[in-house]
Fold this protein.
Amino acid sequence: MTKIVDHIAQAKGRTLFSFEILPPLKGESINTIYAGIEPLMEFKPPFIDVTYHREEYVYRQKPGGLLEKRVERKRPGTVGICAAIMNRFHVDAVPHIICGGFSREETEEALIDLHFLGIDNVLAMRGDAIKSEGRFYPEPDGHAYATDLISQIRALNEGKYLDPEMPRPTPTNFCIGVAGYPEKHFEAPNMKTDLKWLKKKIELGGEYIVTQMFFNNQAFLDFVEKCRAEGITVPIIPGLKPITTRKQLTLLPSIFHVDIPEALAEACETCKTDAEVKQIGIEWCIQQSKELVSAGVPVLHYYSMGKSDAVKAIAKEVF
């Protein structure tokens, strides 16, 4: 399969189309995934990202009233979904690899599985905290930071496994993507510190950056300029999401720590139905996309949240 940076190089300046999907909920068919991907294949995405959702704790009452704490994974495994996508659609799948919920040994096993399957692109992130805990805690013998995770993946690329006495270790060949935040990661004290750690992720082996969603292109363009000033030269891929419901005006800033421009918020607030909000969101994202293509971005990466209709409407106007 082809590395993401090679897809970008082979495009020779043409902006590519890609998107991200969520794994289906436990118990749902793989056809749920296929139904969300098939309408977007006409735009020839060279790769599709597949997120990973970590475990959540649930408490179940036992006879006698005692509560038993159990770990529940809500969504099926990303590795198998990536393999299914590549087999069905013949495009590269990019699994998200996160720190949360994994020991270093479990991370290595997941990466070995990916390597065996010929899945050589990964997006390495720390991941979110468990909802019930409020802040991020690493697993015992797990990684606390994305920089540590990237270092482990790079070590595998150099044939360095956790077991130093492993006979005949085979180097992997992962192309490592990392996350960037045009409006600053919410835990960073300031943008300068955030950029320092982003640069560190690149120095450790990151080969391209995918950004958090944003709704103001100037925030992205300023972010790119600041990255370049810091000596970060890798491709920077903007992440986009159309607003589709009125509720997202408060949910997206709360969950993803992004700013909704006044003009967009006011336009959505005048709508009487979510269908009207969705149309406003699509039109805003179309304009964002066209401006970013004019600015020469390597890829437009859409957060589809498993639903393809809004992204398809945008792509029809841009690609």
